[in-house]
Amino acid sequence: MSLTRFVLVVEYNGTRYHGFQWQAGLPTVQGELERAVGELCGRSSRVISASRTDAGVHAKGQVVTFWTEAVMSTMTMVKGMNHYLPGDVAVRAAYTADDGFRVRRDALSREYCYHILNSPTRSPFSEMFALFMPRTLDIETMRQACQTMVGEHDFASFATSVDDVDNTTRCMYEANIEKRDEFIVLYVMANSFIRHQVRNTVGLLIRLGLGKLEVEDFRHVMEERQPGLAGPTAPAKGLCLTRVNYDRPLDQMGGTSPDEVSG
Length: 263
Prior knowledge:
Blueprint: E1 4-12, H1 29-41, E2 48-49, E3 58-68, H2 74-84, E4 89-97, E5 109-117, E6 131-132, H3 139-147, E7 151-154, E8 169-180, E9 183-190, H4 197-209, H5 215-224, E10 239-245, H6 258-262
Helix pairs in contact: 1-2, 3-4, 3-5
């Protein structure tokens, strides 16, 4: 029997999950996706993601892929998966891809954002999705520090540990701070990220925004290339994977959906 490789764009509220990757006896996003795939498709491969988000981290644009013997249209795949998935995980879109597509290896870049509620009072509406910071932050100084990260650098200082990392050099394509009403939002895009890199960056930027550091201190931390030097690690709840970029749109990955064949 022939197999079809499906590619899904997934979003989730990561609050109750112990990260994306499957862990025995613990709720994970991969576990929920594989359970739903099993209910909908029956026999299939493991679900592989473009980015392994940590416990408590959210996603609006996670990309996953799997093989299945089931024959169905991409529209049926979306509707069927959302029927079996819990309310805090949803499939936004489904595509098919050819045999050569690799969801992680072929990704050119990942985009993340981090939300900070910079307000005198907390808000129950942002409690699960933003870090509450009542003291006013110096946004302009934080923006200046962000620009020092753009380009290819060794980000070892922004890693909590490098025990499982062969290379800590990354290419940062974009790093910027925006003000949206009472929210301060950090946007970063890089070819890939070291574990906890963004959250440690946020922790260091907050120290800068509170006047505890200068931009030159931020640059010095990066140049030292000493694991754990940046931080403190900001809470996971403010972090969200917003997009994974490839060399072409996902609907042009070469696969043929059963609805296209029959049409």
